[in-house]
Structures are given as structure tokens and as C-alpha cells.
Specification:
Layout (H helix, E strand, L loop, with lengths): L18 E3 L3 E2 L6 E2 L3 E3 H5 L6 E6 L5 E6 L5 E6 H4 L5 H13 L2
Antiparallel strand pairs: 1-4, 2-3, 5-6, 6-7
The structure holds zinc ion.
The site of zinc ion has 7 residues, from loops.
Length: 103
């Protein structure tokens, strides 16, 4: 008597927490390369808002923010200081000067 072994292949998708390497973009401060930035796929695919803001550093250490779309493509890059708009003294001086220029 033979037994047929039923080999059932599990077809369920194995989810591996993958990492994606983003394309290199020029640093807005020094024009150097911001490259080799890796992100967890989930942080993009499960993001509620796109583009996703990814903090990164250029080869010279400038802090930048990458705007990444769902295709893991860097759409834009900005210096980190410009994205985080805190009521800094500089901006209020700028506003005052523009206000003065209007006269
Ligand atoms: Zn830089």
C-alpha cells in the first residue's frame, strides 16, 4: 500500500521587511551627492501621505529632507532647516524687511 504524500505548497506571500535605496540627489546646500539613503519599504508603502519626508544627510553632513513618492523616487530635496519652520529670528527679520520694502 502506497501513500501519496500530498505536498501542499504554501502560497502565502512572505513579507520581508525590505529596504529600498533611494536615487541619489544633489544636496541643496553644497550640491554634493545625497546617496545611499535606505528606507524601510513599509515607511513608504504604508504612508498615509505622499510624498513621504525622509531625513537624510549629504556626503558633507548637511541635514536634508527627501520627498519620496510611492515609487521610491525622490521628487524633491530640501535643506532640513527650511522644512521645519520654527519662528526663528531670521525669518521675522526677513518679514520685517519685506514689509519695509513695500513702502
Ligand atoms: Zn551638503
Amino acid at each position: 500500500m502506497r501513500r501519496t504524500l500530498q505536498c501542499r505548497t504554501l502560497n502565502s506571500e512572505v513579507t520581508i521587511v525590505g529596504k529600498k535605496t533611494l536615487n541619489a540627489v544633489p544636496c541643496p546646500i553644497c550640491n554634493g551627492a545625497v546617496e545611499g539613503i535606505t528606507v524601510a519599504e513599509e515607511s513608504i508603502t504604508e504612508a498615509k501621505r505622499v510624498p513621504v519626508l525622509i531625513p537624510a544627510k549629504c556626503s558633507k553632513g548637511h541635514q536634508v529632507v527627501l520627498f519620496v513618492d510611492k515609487q521610491f523616487t525622490v521628487r524633491d530635496v530640501e535643506a532640513a532647516g527650511q522644512v521645519v519652520t520654527e519662528g526663528s529670528d531670521e525669518s521675522s527679520v526677513d518679514k520685517a524687511q519685506k514689509w519695509m520694502d513695500g513702502f
